[in-house]
Amino acid sequence: MVRKVLPTNNFYISMHDPINNRILFPYCVSETNLVEGQRPVAKGLTEYLLRQEKVIFLTPADLVRLIENGEVSSDMAPRMSWLGAPLSDALGRTCGAMAIYWPLEKQEVQENYIRLLEIIAAQVSVAIIRVRAEEALKESEALFTMGPAVKLIIDPHDGNIVNANGVALDFYGYSAHELRAMNISDINVDPAKDATENPTKTMRDGSERPNLQHRIKDGSLKDVEVYSGPITIGGKTLLQSTIIDVSSRTKMERELQKSSERLELVIEASGAGIWDWNMKSGAMFLDRQWKSIIGYAEHEFEDKFSEWSDRIHPEDSRRMLQAVTEAQKDKTGKYEVEYRLRHKDGSYRWVKTVGKITYDAQGEPERLTGSNIDITENRKLMALHLENENRLKDFAQAVPDVSFVIDEAGKVIEAFGSDETMFPAPKTHIQGHTISEVFSGEMAKNLMEDIKRTIEKKSTLRVEYVADVAKGQLFLVGRLSPMRFILEGKNLVAAVFQDFTERWKAESMLQASYQMRRKSDFLNDLILGSRALDKETMEFAAKIGLDFSRPLFCCIVSCEQSSVSGNKSNGSIFDVPARKDEIMEAIDDGTNRIIWDCRDVIGVIYLLEELDTVDRKCCIKAAEFLKANISENNPGIDVMIGIGDVGLGGDGLRNSFQQAWSTMTAIRSRAGKTGSVSHYRDLGILQLLARKIDNESAEDFIRVTIGKILDYDRDKGTEYLQTLEVILSHESLKESAQLLFVHPNTVLYRRQRIEKLLNISLDDIEVKVAVIAAMKLYKLNH
Fold this sequence. Notes:
The protein is α+β, with helices and mostly antiparallel strands. 43% of the residues lie in helices and 25% in strands. Strand 1 and strand 2 form a beta hairpin. The longest helix is centred in the N-terminal third of the chain and has 36 residues, at 111-146. The protein is elongated and about 155 Å long.
């Protein structure tokens, strides 16, 4: 149509989108592509027309002037003449433009072209209004049908319900057929308040919000708010009502009203004085009760901050200011402080102030609000209470018990006791928590069961528990007694415990010592052959884990204080029985070994699965693991372990023990021992020397072979026997000198002196063997 009546092929329609602040171009015909699909609002010709709200014709010269004045941007103006007419919406507001641009001067543009463009723009506006109305109607229908709100369409003349959406059907509980057959008065409890009572006013004003109650199908009432407005359907004006369920809000408002009334009663009954200070404006509010606390009538005291601050006791001013300052620092804004205020009669009254700081949007303090309570009498009572409490504390210090009040659900109501280390946690972390949160799993379970039994039987129950507390594991003995009081509908139980840990440990140690003694006596008698393998023996062996059908081997364990190289050891640590018991308890871990006290050493029996799978290396490995275990837990000692062969039955046990004993004897005879693990099969010639031989023959051999050295060392205080042992153990004089911490020439001198005393030559191999044997026998027998 534009092409037919106007001589141009360049025109477009532009629309302003105020929501997204953009200019849209829904339709355009352009030979020069000067128009884009959409763009942000800027200094374009469309915006210029929207401001002018009239038909405008601009020549290129006019455009240059507008650009220079800053009204139009240079990149948004065509380099040709431009003719634009405004488009209007349903309310007559300019919402867009219809524009033409062509290479003509103003005098060439006829007035009828401008008039024609105005006519076309008006028709386009009507078309736009129609399209938008249709789109709005479709959107309204969609919102009515699919929207989340309850919606009804009502005939304002008779109140009949014309239509209802699905949400309304769910809300009222009726079917669509049932609801359409009803009148609004059927569901509105107070029809006088409904929008249908004054349809003319509703049509004119567009909306009302009466507070109503609607009855749903099950007969219950719902508090609702109704928003109504006219809607035309099929040429008939009806009311569309949106119903909002406000039952929850109404209930909350009622509860809030009740709470406010209760709060007023509580404040009045508590005697609290309320105050509010605007920190920016300085405005102050002090209620009647606040003023009466310090003896003033409401009209006798001005609501000024200075009236308050001037009456604070000089000694308390700093504390009051500090409380407010700290509340500001931690950003909670809450503070609580007790101080003195001067009364009208000149005396001072103690008051407790609880305040809250509120902040503005910039985070700056804005208001200070709170309450004052007269605590003068409380202070007097507190002083008396403190005196009594100190007496009770002194009494509690003398009583070692801890006690609790626990309800039937396991919640700890109270906790008492002077020794904090007997509690599993600080008392403040116990009260209000359940016993499963306070005590370890096993004790919590047993205690809960005992509490139920106490309540069921209504009698006192004696109990024993092992508890993990602050100072370690305790053995607690106590009593649970039902209480007469009921708290929040739950029965209460009083629990009192005493620490019997030391006694329990002592009894446990005695029991363990007794059991170890019985086991040790049994095994020592069995090894010495004084106990037969009868039925009684086999039954007791089974009790201690000794199975004669399984292969076994024995170890002998001895421990000595660590020795300095070249010096004698400080002796067996087993000279102290308690130390020996500690080591036996530590290694008696319930594995496949049996531990017993074998006089001045520890005996160990290893039980094996199969004889064929065990060799000497396995036995040594087990002993080395045992040695490492003992050394790790007992630093500063030398551990020596002698190992016997694997055997079966009682004879195998005795034979393995004798071999282990001989091995230990041989270990002790070695020079420079610093802890060792040796198997009987590794002793060599010492197997023979370690066996029991005639004592007189052994002493005679020692006296003849090395007796003169022994006598010389004893008489002169020398250490020639030690020197001889080192020389025979090392080929090099230099090595011997280093071990003896002397010069090699000194070693050479001592060797010559020894050979002269004994009238021998140490270069003779048979002489060396005899001397070595004599020294071994001497160590074994001495």
